[in-house]
Amino acid sequence: MDRADLAPLIDHTVLGPTTTQTAVDRVVDDAIEAGMNVCIPPCYVGSVTDDAPDSLTVATVIGFPHGQAAPSVKREAATAAVAAGADELDVVCNVGRLTAEEQAAVVDELAAITAAVAVPVKVIIETALLTDEEKHRACEAAVDADADMVKTSTGFADAEQSGATVADVELMADYLPVKASGGIGDYETAMAMIDAGADRIGASSGLAILDGAPS
């Protein structure tokens, strides 16, 4: 896949705890120039969408990074982000409720968010913390909640194993389009995820990934 085809599949991301407006502006400028999307903290969405071209897809995160806010809080955060101009939402699943087999609660929370907004919702299932059986149930919950995509990870769950894997992408792709995120730092890794079935790549290394692509 060449650079022009790959760029629109990348959500160029800055979500660290010390992220500043300056850092966000730099990521946005790079994304606009390269033809990528951006994924940024919700507090900066309005400042970006006020000036960004309509061609830029702006994603933000809800319940990030642990997904443990009250359902009503996550729903309100989602509607506020869309009101500020967000084009897509990456919503963290409540992993504790999922692993406790509270499937109905997980579905209800996600469904309330998808029903409240008119933009695509990606459900982050945090694969590093789940068994394969739990990954299947997380994807089933996303389907039942009428989500648009499933996403592998926040990148914050486990310092040793928090990134996307080919096996997880293959599992998740049986349910919904997949955003592979976490630990994707070069073109070869990005293409391995796409070959496994990923439709979108989330990475803070968007420029490095594109630098490895044929022009």
What does the overall shape look like? globular
Distance between the amino and carboxyl termini: 9 Å
Radius of gyration from the CA trace? 16 Å
Q: Would you identify the regions where 5 or more consecutive residues have pLDDT less than 50?
A: none
Report the major sheet: 8 strands, parallel, barrel
Architecture per CATH nomenclature, i.e. the level-2 architecture: Alpha-Beta Barrel
Strand line-up in the sheet with most strands? 1-2-3-4-5-6-7-8
Output the CATH homologous superfamily: Aldolase class I
Number of H/I helices: 10
Indicate the structural class.
alpha/beta
Strand content: 15-25%
CATH class: Alpha Beta
Order of helices and strands: HEHEHEHEHHEHEHEHEH
Bin the helical content.
40-55%
**Mean pLDDT across all amino acids:** 96
CATH topology: TIM Barrel
Count of individual domains? 1
- Number of extended strands: 8
What attributes characterize this protein structure?
single chain; 215 residues; alpha/beta; TIM Barrel; globular
Topology:
Layout: H1 3-6, E1 10-13, H2 21-34, E2 37-40, H3 45-49, E3 58-62, H4 71-84, E4 88-92, H5 95-99, H6 103-116, E5 121-124, H7 132-144, E6 149-151, H8 166-172, E7 178-181, H9 187-196, E8 198-203, H10 206-211
Parallel strand pairs: 1-2, 1-8, 2-3, 3-4, 4-5, 5-6, 6-7, 7-8
Helix pairs in contact: 4-6, 6-7
Could you characterize the architecture of this molecule?
This protein has 215 residues and is of the alpha/beta class. It has a single domain (3-211), classed as TIM Barrel. It contains 10 helices and 8 strands. The protein has an 8-stranded parallel beta barrel, surrounded by 5 helices. Helix 7 links the parallel strand 5 (121-124) and strand 6 (149-151). Helix 4 runs parallel beside helix 6 (103-116) and helix 6 (103-116) packs parallel to helix 7. It is globular. The N and C termini lie close together (9 Å).
